[in-house]
Amino acid sequence: MLIRTKNQALLLSALFAIMQGLPPLAAVAQAPADPAAGGSGPIDIQAHEQEFTGDHVIAKGNVKVLYKDTTILAPLATLYRDLASGQPQKAIFTGHPRLVQGANKIDADQLIFEMTTSKIYADGHAHSEVVNNDPVAEPINDKKKPGAGNSGGMATGAPPSAGMVSNGKGGFEWPTQEGDRKKAMAAKKDAAKQEKQDKQEKQDMASEGESAATDSNGEVADGAPSNNNSSRGPLAMGASGGAGGTTTAAKGGGGLGGGMGDEAPTKIITDSDRQEYDRDSGRFEAFGNVRVIAGDIHVTADHLKLAYGLDHRPEAAIFNGHVNAIQDKNNTASDFMTYFLLTKRLQASGHVRSKVIQDKSGEVKPVPKKQEEGVIKPISNAIQPATNSKTKSAGPVISLGGMSSGGTKAPIIIVSDSQDYNKETGRLDAIGNARIFFEDTIGIGPKVILMKNADGQAEKIIFVGRSQVTQKGKRWIGDRVTIFVADRRVLAEGNTKAVILQKKDNGQTQTPLQDNMMLAQPKPQVMAGTPPSSGAKVETKTESQLAGNNSKLSATKVNRPE
Q1: For the chain, what is the total number of helices (H) and then of strands (E)?
Q2: Model confidence over 489-498: pLDDT tens digits?
Q3: Residue 21: in which H helix or E strand, if any?
Q4: I want to staple 489 with a disulfide (CB 3.0 to 4.6 A). Which of 117, 144, 180, 484 is the partner?
Q5: Torsion angle of alpha carbons 80, 83, 86, 91, nearest 10°?
Q6: In terms of pTM, does the model score above 0.70?
C-alpha cells in the first residue's frame, strides 16, 4: 500500500513537471449573448507569455489576437475589460503591430482596438490598405446574439445559433489561471465550427438569392433583390432599367459606391502620421503627412476623410490642407479637393492651379506608304543641328520623313478659385478668376472649360463670360472666346473686340501703358481730339484709348507661373 502511494506521488510529480514545461495556454474569453451589451464574441489570445490581473491581460512575445474577423499580430498587447459587465473594452498593441480585418489591412507603431465600437486608432507611421469592392467591409452582424440581424433574417428573441458557447451565468468569464486546457480547446473548436457554419450559410444564401431572383426567362422576379445586398434597404437600390426589368446602379455614385464591374480603384493605400477607422459607421480619417494612392492618382495632403455609401464601401476621398494630386502626367494643387472613386471625378477649390501636360508624340501620324509611292518630295530647308552643336533650335525639328521630333508640347496651366475635372468625359471646368497660360497665349475670364478629345489630348479652351485672350501682338475680347489648342486659333463671339498691336519704328511693340488683364463691360467709343502720331503705322491713338476703356486696365501685372 505504501509502495502504491509512493508511485502515485511520483506520477503526479512527473505530470506536474511536464505541465510546467508546456508553453502558456491561449486565453479564450467568451462574451455574453446579451443584445444590449456592446461587443461580443470569443477572443482568442495566443502569446509566449501572459499575465492575468483583475481588469486586464498582458501578453508578450508573438502575440496573436483573434476577434470575429479581425486578426492582430504584435510583440506586446494589453487587453482591458469592464469589471461591471465583464465585456472586453479595448486592446492596446505596441511594437508596430499589424491588423487584418476582412480584406483591409492597417499597421502602425501603436494600435488601439475598441471591441465595443469596432474602432481602430493607428498612431505613428500608420499604413493602411482599404479594398473598395470588399463585401466584408460592412458591419459584421454578430450571429451569436439572439435576434441579431443577418441576411437570413433571424427573428428577434430567437434562441441562439447552434454551436454557441456560454458560461451559463450570463456574464463574462475571464481566465484567471493557465490551467483548464480542456475548456480552452473546447471553446476554440466551437468558435472554429461556428465560423465554418457562418461561412457556409453565407454561400448558401448567396446562391439561393441568385436562383430565386431570376426566373426561367432570365427576368428578375417580383419582390426579389437585384443583387446580394438584400438587407441594405430600398435606398441602396439604383434606377430600374427598361428591358428585362434589371436594376442597375446610377453611375454618378449617389447611393451606391460601385460594384465589382466598375472601374473604380480596387485598393486605397494611405500613409500618414495617425489614422482612425470606424467600421460600423463607415468613417476613415488620416492626419498629418497624408499620402494616398488610389488607382492612377497620387495625392498628398494634411488631412484625408473617406466618405462611405449605403453599401459600406468608400465612394469619395476628401482632402484638405496643401493638397497636391498627380494623375497620369497632370498635376493639380489646391486647398481642398474631393476625388470620387467610382467616376474618377476630381473637384478642387481654394487657390487651384492645374498643369495639363500635352504629349505631342501621340499626335504624330506618318504618311501612308501608298500615298508616298511615285511622289517626289521637296527637300526641306530645315537644318538639323548636330548632337555636339551648341545652337538651340527654336522649335521641333522636322525630319525628311515629315515626322516631328518634338517630345511634348508646352503645358497648359490653369489657375482659378475652383476646378472640376471628370476623367471619363475629359472636361475640366475652372470657375472664378480663371487664367490660362499656354505657350504665348494668356487668357482670363470668369469661367474656363477645357475639352479633351478621344485620345486624351486638349482640344479646345472655352472662356465663358466677358473674357480676354492675348497672344503676341494680338488681343481678343468677347463674351465667349474659344482657343483651339492644335493651332492656337482664337474665335471670339458676342460683343467682340479685336486689337492688333503694331510695332513702332524702334522695334518695340506699341501697347497700352497699363496692364490689360482686368476686364469690365464695354463702354461707348470716345473719339480723341488729338491726331494720330506720325510715327505709328497702323494703330492710332484713338484705338489705343478705346482698348483701354474696354478693359479697365490696372497697374498690376499677371505673371506667368513656372
Answers
A1: 4, 25
A2: 999 999 999 8
A3: helix 2-21
A4: 484
A5: -10
A6: no
Instruction: Compute the distance between CA of residue 5 and CA of residue 119 in angstroms, rounded to an integer.
Output: 57
**Single-letter code of the amino acid located at 142:** D
Q: Are 473 and 501 in contact (CB under 8 A)?
A: yes
Who wins on pLDDT, 261 or 471? Answer: 471
**Cα separations (Å) of 58 from 86, 121, 505?**
17, 19, 90
Cα 461 from Cα 54, distance rounded (Å): 71
Paired residues of 285 in beta bridges = 276, 305
Residue that the C-alpha cell 470569443 belongs to: 42
Is 306 buried (19+), middle (13-18) or exposed (0-12) by CB count in 10 A?
Answer: buried
Q: How many CB atoms lie within 10 A of CB 201?
A: 15
> Is the CB of residue 356 less than 8 Å from the CB of residue 330?
yes
Domains, the chain: 22-155+166-196 (2.60.450.10), 426-562 (2.60.450)
CA distances 509 to 241, 472, 490, 503, Å, are 63, 9, 21, 4
CB atoms within 10 A of CB 84: 6
**Phi-psi region at 416: left, alpha or beta (left = phi > 0; alpha = psi -120 to 50):** beta
- For residue 463, pLDDT over 60 is answered with yes
Other beta carbons within 10 Å of 226: 18
Q: 68's torsion region: left (phi>0), alpha (psi -120 to 50) or beta? A: left
- CA–CA dist 293, 31 (Å, integer): 39
Question: Strand, coil or helix: what is 93?
Answer: strand
Choice among 43-52, 117-126, 396-405, 429-438 with the minimum mean pLDDT: 396-405
Going by C-alpha positions, the residue among 373, 393, 551, 385 that lies closest to residue 475 is 551
Query: Between residues 120 and 86, which one has the greater pLDDT?
Result: 120
Window from 154-163, 424-433, 460-469 with minimum mean pLDDT:
154-163
Phi, psi of 181 (to 5 degrees): -65, -40
Block residue for cell numbers 503526479: 12
Q: How buried is 165 (Cβ within 10 angstroms: 0-12 exposed, 13-18 middle, 19+ buried)?
A: buried
Instruction: Report the run of H or E that residue 412 belongs to, with start and end.
Output: strand 412-422
